[in-house]
Design brief:
The protein has two domains: 2-30 and 268-421, LarA, C-terminal domain (2-enoyl-CoA Hydratase, Chain A, domain 1, Alpha-Beta Complex), CATH 3.90.226; 54-230, 3-Layer(aba) Sandwich (Rossmann fold), CATH 3.40.50. It is 31% helix and 25% strand. It is built from 14 helices and 20 strands.
């Protein structure tokens, strides 16, 4: 049996023998066909927004700001933005008064020369484009605290606009439950203190993939969105190949309510029992652009891997760790084991960046994690991961160790897959 895993902008292949009595199962999003005409789908969503809102409600506005996702998200901006921008201009808003703000959260700030990675050239030429910096305190405005006492600091340029919009995808998220809705601005345009307080909830009960109601981290995100007063969301629904299936527009909360059942239907995959071996990809570029993003694949695969089992994770990581804060924290000479990570993380308290080391160690401490990437092997070891050079070579060394009735799982789009035990 040939195994094919997305890796960066290409694929890796390996062969699994099928005559050993193993149970081999692919855990992947449903094979939903892409929309024949994405533009028609998006226009239909904008013409029929969900919730008690219409575009004409914004008539008279003079300025607008749109939170857009950064290069780590496969958001089809080239499809989503033109119809939305056309409607804003039809309201009478001049192009120079429609700001596109790249919502990086705590991710590295994108310089202008990288804007073309997420936006078409004609949009960059016609509209002002800015990139959020969560540590630029002079460009943050305090809005108060959420019910869970998260202090809310948000990008001032976004708050200045008469209309505040978000675009993005609705897909599974490892502890906020789902991306989409207000999250692009509530986290993507927030200050570091806000994000730190929200993400600290990842260890609370209910903060889990595929859960919206009763998820403390997601409910806090919604509270942040209410304080910001986000007016309108345009979210795409993608299939496992990152193609547009549908789009939903309207009030952000209503968009989420409409989208979540469909995301669950397409991306929540039941499995009968835990697996001895998992072959995993985050889903290729940009899901595996760095360790920071690729960790999500490990977290999702770990949900259905036996304690002591093996996860082979193929993630190109052309941009390394993706976080200077995480890298500095984990490369400390004291971080020689997962136990050391846990001890220091508990002693110092929750911190963005350090939390990524905690999340990796949480799973790697109970599983054997083999990491295939473009990073140097010695560097991977310093991240407390086990580097491998070849998917096939790793399989050839592991397969003889497996029991006769071993269960082998394959997750080619792990970042967007919700595996659940029946």
């Amino acid at each position: 049996m040939e195994v094919r895993l997305p890796y960066g902008k290409t694929y890796l292949t390996a062969t699994l023998p099928e005559n050993h009595g193993w149970h081999i199962e692919t855990i992947a999003p449903a094979d939903i066909p892409a929309a024949d005409d994405p533009l028609a789908i998006i226009n239909a969503a904008l013409d029929n927004p969900v919730g008690a809102i219409q575009f004409n409600d914004f008539r008279g506005a003079e300025t607008a700001a749109i939170a857009i996702n950064d290069k780590t998200r496969p958001v089809p901006h080239h499809h989503l933005l033109p119809p939305l921008l056309a409607r804003l201009e039809k309201l009478g808003i001049q192009p120079q008064n429609i700001r596109l703000i790249i919502a990086t959260g705590t991710h590295p700030v994108m310089p202008p020369e990288e804007y073309a990675m997420v936006l078409p050239d004609d949009i960059i030429a016609r509209y002002p484009v800015l990139c959020h910096d969560c540590e630029d305190n002079d460009n943050l405005q305090y809005l108060g605290k959420t019910e869970r006492q998260t202090p809310v600091y948000i990008n001032k340029e976004y708050l200045k606009a008469d209309i505040r919009l978000v675009i993005g995808n609705v897909e599974p998220h490892q502890f906020v439950g789902f991306s989409g809705g207000v999250k692009s601005a509530a986290i993507g345009l927030a200050g570091k203190e806000t994000i730190n307080a929200n993400h600290a909830m990842l260890r609370e009960a209910g903060a889990e993939i595929g859960r919206y109601a009763g998820n403390p981290a997601r409910e806090d995100v919604e509270d942040i969105g209410r304080l910001i007063r986000i007016d309108f969301a345009l979210n795409a629904l993608l299939n496992g190949k990152k193609q547009i299936v549908d789009a939903i527009a309207g009030h952000p909360v209503d968009v989420m309510q409409a989208a979540i059942p469909r995301v669950i239907q397409g991306f929540q995959i039941p499995v009968a029992a835990l697996f001895d071996l998992m072959l995993v990809s985050p889903g290729g570029h940009p899901k595996d652009i760095n360790v920071y993003q690729s960790q999500k694949a490990l977290a999702h695969a770990a949900l259905v891997t036996k304690p002591g089992g093996t996860v082979i994770l193929a993630a190109a990581c052309p941009e390394g760790t993706g976080s200077d804060t995480y890298e500095h924290w984990i490369l400390d000479e004291r971080m020689v084991s997962h136990a050391a990570v846990f001890e220091r993380f508990e002693r110092e308290g929750f911190r963005i960046g350090a939390h990524k080391a905690f999340q990796i160690s949480r799973d790697a401490a109970r599983l054997r994690v083999l990491w295939l990437s473009d990073m140097e092997a010695d560097f991977v070891r310093k991240l407390l991961l086990n580097p491998i050079e070849s998917l096939q070579a790793a399989l050839d060394s592991i397969l003889p160790e497996l029991p006769t009735a071993a269960r082998i799982g394959i997750m080619p789009a792990a970042n967007a897959t919700i595996p659940t035990l029946k």
